[in-house]
Amino acid sequence: MKRPIFWVLAVAILAVLMILGVSWGTVPLTPRAVLAALAGHGDRNAIEIVRALRLPRVALAALVGAGLGVSGAALQGSLRNALAEPYLLGVSGGAAVGAVIGVALGFSSAIALPLFAFAGAAAAIATAILIARAAGGRADPRVLLMAGVIIGAFANAAIMVVLSGAPANTMRSALWWMMGSAAAADWPQVAWLAGYTVLAGGALLWFSRDIDILALGEESATALGVDAERAGRRVFLVSSLLAAATVAAAGLVGFVGLVVPHLVRAAGIRRHRALLPGAALAGASLVVLADLVARVAHPPAELPLGAVTALVGVPFFLVQLRRLS
Amino acid sequence: MICFERVVARYPRASRAAVDDISFAVPPAQITAVVGPNGSGKSTLVRALLGMLPLVSGTIRVEGLDSATRDRRAFARRVAVVTQRESLVFPMPVREYVALGRYPHEGSWHAAGVEDARAVDDAVTLAGILPFALRSTEELSGGEWQRVRIARALAQAAPALVLDEPTTFLDIAHEMAMFELFTRLARGGTAVLLVSHQLNLVARFADRIVLLHQGRVAAAGTPNEVMRAAVLEPVYDWPLVVTRDPAVGAPALLPLRGSSH
Amino acid sequence: MPATTELLFAIGAGPRVVGRTPWDLWSDSARRVADVGVGLRPNIEAVLARRPDLVLLYATGENRAAAQALRAAGVAVIALRIDRVEDFRRAARLIGMATGDSARAAAVVDSVDRTLARVRSRTAGLPRPTVFWHVWDAPIITIARGSFLDELLTIAGGRNIYEDLSQPSPQVSLEDIVRRDPDVILAGPDGAARIRASATWRSVRAVREGHVLVVDTSLIGHPSVRMGEAATVLAHLLHPAVVQ
What we know:
The structure holds 3 protein chains of 3 kinds. Chain A is mainly α. Chain A has helices at residues 3-23, 31-39, 44-78, 91-104, 112-134, 141-164, 168-178, 187-206, 208-214, 218-223, 228-250, 256-266, 272-296, 305-324. Chain A has a single domain, classed as ABC transporter involved in vitamin B12 uptake, BtuC (Orthogonal Bundle), CATH 1.10.3470. Chain A is built from 14 helices and no strands. Chain B has a single domain, classed as P-loop containing nucleotide triphosphate hydrolases (Rossmann fold, 3-Layer(aba) Sandwich). By secondary structure, chain B is α/β, with parallel strands linked by helices. Chain B is globular. In chain B, a hairpin with a 2-residue loop joins strand 4 (55-62) and strand 5 (65-66). By secondary structure, chain C is an alpha/beta fold. Chain C is globular. Chain C starts with a helix and ends in a 6-residue tail after the last helix. Chains A and C meet through helix 3 and helix 7 of A and helix 8 of C.
């Protein structure tokens, strides 16, 4: 695919999806009603639905998707693993443990729970790095991956322990959080996630050349002048923290970080200086679409966001399987 | 110019030093070959040069810059290293891969300049990979991939070039072409350090041979000096005969059958 | 379970109750009875240790094995489900027969029925506020036509905005609630606090106007001898000026 076409298409698709996301929902509204609501005229409830509920939600979904896409692309390159995904490395497990503990302690506000989740994710990331360091000191991607898997397993066990003795309501809240949702989006959340995503995404973009070189392997990267251990650790840290922020905002939305980089690479984009922004756009589109599906698939109920994105994983792995054989 | 000065290096948790007090120089405009049996420390030397194995003592300097320097890019601008093995997880066009060799020269803004494009072109031509420069790396044969890797090192345009077993997957024609390329580079002023098993080719093309045995220098000198049965047999622990073919003009080594040992 | 324990005490069979679940806490006398564990998949050993003649179980597939085990041990078992108002009357009569207190049971049912009728008539002519009943908010769960709370709401003179749905506890979205525009939101104390603290719930008019009313979930939760009291409390919440 020619480069300019990809970018035009990517931006156009995202724009269309965001417009649809604001126009469609559990409550059917005519395009005129939507426009009026955006401008602030007309039915008060329609205004609330469009401006206070749908707009921040679509914005949050886009930011979550962008963050996960960028994080996944950066990790796949620096860890030299096409199946690396931000959640694989302990981020999701740690965030889930943090959130479950928060719920069990009785916190459920839109401010407290994300903090718990983020703290849990940060602890998991730090532990992964410490384990990797104790195992040998060099940033061998396989060691980092295994550390992440270990932490994930431990986190699952911890969650089961906390939930087994918990009352039904705690379990319901915890499970709902873990399945991912953009439903609790409000403007303050969108604002801090936006700032965070721009900062972390910008940092990863700055490292993009390093990631190109890291993808060659530790020896070759060192031969070309990259401090493989330091650079690898930097990318791992920033990517994981970015993923942690998305988890704090919307719970566990899996497969996006895994699938999106492949989609962008399939369009012919390889260098990370273009791959990262491309993954941001594609990821945003994917999650905005998933959120839309979650809202309109089965009214008046909402599907969990993570469930919809998980469905994306199935065809993806089927395609991968075909390529292998 | 690469200088190894009393280099001692040991792998973590190893009892014995892999490289024990090795000193030699790789002067510019010459091919210096490091040979020796498996485990003699050849590849360890390359790793130590790259800074992947910390030195217990001694120094390695390239164009005066210590290998332990923190300015990795400056070091990479002075010496290009082609390691034994490399495989890519994500394929890309060959030319793009070769262009990665310009990384040590790129500025903070990672922008490629005219000079970079020219260096890549030169590298592609020198390495003889022009016919498939636009193919994807995943479509290459073993030998083609090897030459592409060498092209990337050439794109670095460094005054020193280190190659660890660069002709493993190459057939006779390509192997000879590679050695002739190394010779051309040396004539052009590059200090070439070659680690190789191919004693006979090394004997023909190298200006100096350093023979390693159990981490130490067993012999160093011109091919005529080092390529002698008396020198090689104790190191390789195998009966052999060194002849001289008039067509070639360099010593050639012939291993004998083991039963006559 | 709470409903049956309360019934037993109400018909005077209290002294004969030898075991209860952890949530049967309404009366002090009930508290003094031994706690033998939860009502779902009960601990058979703990129950048998109290040597009962009769066990009242919550009727659900999960308890089938427990019922079989108890019957095999020679204990009489009655499986009950008290989900709706009508279930309560039936259960009361059944328990009355089983304990030999049919007369007292009938009296209890009568008393409850009379209170309910009184509430119904008090609210009959009044305008019915539309109500959203908050059960949980992550995900948002409410009650609809198939549930006891909906019945109670109707008796108390309110109208459930989700009366068109027939599942007892459907999951709904905030958008939909905003569109249906309830006059009032009923919630337990925790739920009400969370709703008031949430930025997204402010999209609902009832929240903006301060019409989030707190109900005592232990009183209101299930059909029981205190149904009359529950209906009265609810009617008072919805029509404060009219009902005492």
